[in-house]
Queue: 3 jobs
Job 1
Amino acid sequence: TSGRTQPIWARTLRQSEGHLRLRKGPPAEADELMLARHPASSFDWWKKKHLQDPSPKAAGWDEFYLDEDADASVMGVRRERLAAIYINSKGDASTGPLDMITFLLSGHIPMFFLPGQVTEAAKRNVMVIGHGSGVTTGAISIYDEVERIDVVEISKAVLDADKLFTHANHQVLSNPKTHIYLDDARTFLRTVPRKYDLIVSQPSNPWIAGIGSLFTIDFFEDCRDRLTDDGIMMVWFHHYEQSNETIQLITRTIHQVFPHVECFLTVESDTIGLASMKPLPVDFQRMEALFDRPEIRGDLARVGVYNLAGLLAYHGVNARHFAAAVGEGPINTDDHQRLEYLGARNMFLGRNADLLEKDAGFDPLPEGGTDWLFDRYTHWRNEQKEPLHVDEMRPTLASVENILTREHRLAIELRQRVQSVTDQGTPSKPSRGLRVPIEQMGFSESFNWSQFVKAAEGPEAALPFLQHAVALEPKNSGASVTLAQAYDQLGRGEECVNTLLKLMEAGTTRTDAKLVLARLAIKAQQIDQARQLLEQLVEYEDNGDALMLLGEIVGQKGNYAQAKEYFRRTILRDWKLRQWQASMNYTQILRMEAEGLPLGDTAGRTKLLKEALSEIRYALYHNPGQNDLLQQEANLQMQLAVLAGTPGPQPQAPAGTPPGQTPVPAGK
């Protein structure tokens, strides 16, 4: 999980005011209603704010899996292509785009650096520690060079949850290359008679009890002893919710055993370390030959890696800089496992390390550029008389900026390189930027290309890619809805509606199509049809957008009680993304109710307006400085002051504005 997208469990720990981490309670000026609703006031309100509703209606999941064994409680969920696994309530893997980039590259990158030519008599043996989603193992399995993959997983429940991920991991557990060992990795390493060309270690977060033992010098020595002379160990670790002290402890311990470590950076703070006893061989000709295999090209395209330059761009730290970054200090050992305690402390502090991200990463070369693998490949391509082409650089830059952010040093370096690439001629092969015909693309490759082409050239250019993706998977709501939205942007309303109707006829269980159709109906002033679609939608799933729109519709018709119920459900279901907008609409309903009371009912009006003010202040507590909330707060203070016969602040907006006509229209 990246530092930008925090999972539910991380939000729970970080934002449970006054309950788990005792960071802070409600503000001193909080009124009675706000105090009663604060997460620190009761476990019931804490759960409403911080815990996901596991019911299908709340989350819209199609498949559930729950099991326990001696080592873990495992929950898995799936909806179309999106699947996730939770181990002991912590999200451990998913097929979301940010997880997939790390999982896939963890399998592909080391395969590009295994040395030499492989014969039938001497194929590769690979060991994978920890199964998770199986995506990394699946990536390795598609290489012809691999003869055997030993998957060592301690939890049977994790292996059983694999059925939710078969669409993403090439059904790797059914592959005859794969051999499953239900065992502790440390025990297996010390007893297995084989040696491996590649050992992949993707443990969970180091603050989890027991995980620190997969980051000790003893563990790395066991792995070294099971590697061939030219073998590679892939070690995953992360910078999020860690300190530089912790990262130095990890890197120092690795470096004590492996003198050569090259690092690739993904998703801003995930690190793929390639550790070896010898410098990694770099054979760009062999790399291109691997990339040009259709199954490998198509697999990497699932995460926006469209050419070899796009893969090498994630190289973030060379071996010399890695060695320099480790510094002096202790190492992590079986007898003194510092990491588990440092890791847990840093998680609670909620800070992120930047040790390897801030480092320059590379050294300059005499011929210009650096020893960044991307630069070395650039020089090699120049020697081959086919320099990097704009057609390979633009999608590469777009992907890296999306994954690492525009401000990341690797993205900045790439933007500088784009200025010097050629636009002459045509790339000669996929590894050099040649785009294969659409009909040869798989679903993910076609859909990902559609997003790049749409951003670069507009929706018209994206249509063929989206149409192909929809033809491959008619039930996939993401592709069909995106195609429908492209039609809508082009003013092709009939094709837009037909695409969505076909999606529903195909049997999708997702609610996206109904939501888009409802928005189109509202746009066409067909309010009753929109309401019917939205009511069907929320019967299946508590969708925040749908609940907001329903609240606006019924509120404008004067059904205040039902409108409040919809807005309240929005606040409880989707507090992070929609709370302040739902609170604005909920408050407008209360103000309108107050204005509907007899002029002499001062007590009734005051009660409703105080509830409205409490709602706004609660929203401001979580969205400090939000201008529309501040305006609403001032309006309510003024109205209450008038009722009390005391001066108040000047109004900022007219009272009685119907829901959906607030300064920032909610749910639009």
Job 2
Amino acid sequence: MKSLVTILLLLLSGNVYSQSNNSDTLIITLDENKQWLTKFEGKDLKDKLTIIRNRILSDTAIYIRQTFADRIRVEDQYTHEKRIEGTCKPLFILGNQPIYITNQTSNKQIENLVELINVHNIKDVRILNDSTAPAIYGSKAICGVIILDPKIKNAGKINPLPWD
């Protein structure tokens, strides 16, 4: 009986550890995003692209509550499921095309974007993380802008994604 209780406790403790470890990788607030962008700066291109792909995939788990221009929150009346709410997702620019991942972005669009972000398609990654980002790209750039320079001059050739 003691061994059964011990095994049960070990299984539960492993589950709790994996849940707490997973929440550490999610970037929810503006401060966490700034720290992420700061750590991102010193990496080489291959590492940057891997980090960006992981960030895009982890951002799909974060729900950003919709707001009007005057910051009045819109409540979702129809969904009563638990979700992780955040306030910060960066704006991606791929060859002059802005890509902002919202709650309505389809899984297929995200998969296509993640497949495009590799060393064969991207030659450089730049970050705008200061007050110039929202001045240039608007309110969606408050959490920073990640500019992906494609190797092909016409990014439409490698970006068949319909974004709003």
Job 3
Amino acid sequence: MRTMFDYHADYIEPQLLIKILNYVSSHNDHLHELGIYVRGYSCLIMSRVSSCRALTSLKFSLSSIRRYDIRETLFPKNLNLPLLSSLVLENFAFCGGGLVLENFAFCGGENGCAEPFSTFTKLNSLILRSCEVKDAQILSISSETLVKLALLDNFAKIELSVPSLCTFTFTGDLIQKICGSSLSSIKQVNIDHEISPSVNNALALLSCLQDLANVELLTVNSTTLEILSLVPDLLEVKLPSFCNLRSLEVKMIPLHHGHLFLLMKDVMLKKVAAKSSKEADKLRKAFKAGLELPAIPDGIVDFLRQNPSSAEVNITTDYPGCFNLKQVEESIKGEKIINYRSQIATPASFSVAPACADESAFAPASAVASASAAPPSLHLCRAEI
């Protein structure tokens, strides 16, 4: 039997939650997939989840009952799920020594390192969203079996020991240090930058790219490239990585007239002024007259594929009306442009569970067969109001 429970509410009654959790407990030897997206009652829920030793897939999003209480949920150190291969966590924190009593947080040892996943010996896919480390400096992810990793968060420092890692997805700041001896195994990288633009952040991004020696498929948004362009004399830097790059995809998003826009203008003016003060004056006047910055910084595509110059380049956008696509095409020497009008989702293998059951990852209860040879699968879901 395959069972699915969809709860469309911002708050679940304790009596109903207890009934559902009793169902979970009664099937803990057979329940293979569990998705929980509710507010509150984290201790009650975790006590039931820890008994589901047959779980292979866990999608977990817990938050406070109080809408504006943003305290995270403490992730238990002793969660023993030996068969778990897929894990999605949202709104958790990782703690590096102290005890957090309100909600859950990822806890580590006295060495200031949080290592919450070492007991999952079959882990294949890991997604972290809106999580953080508490009272620790390092989030350590160590797994011999992990193939896909998505970090949709910001951490002070990330230490990876993942020799089988093939796909790495990152959304957020790259100002933290990502280190490890197994980054060379990564073949596919997806970076969707959401950072405060600065030269230091640009240098951190460059350092990260230099560590990814054997990447074959790289997907970035235009903001990532714009921030990268802030690195002084970037186009003169030799990029030893990306020797195996076969495909580069750039997702163009509009650049608003904010801090990044001003930084990029300043970089352009300094470059021109270093050659000719007259040309710099002309450029200043052009900016005052409304000259727009290039959608993709000049020369940066060739910089990324300087080793395999034959790497395929695809340009995609959800905002074709915001760009002069012909001009973009000419600026990167006629590379292929593909237009998307609908929102481009995170790759399917990394799609984080939706906040409510009417999204594609969860079929309506009426559509679920009452009997099947598949093991039971339970999903608790809430919708934001």
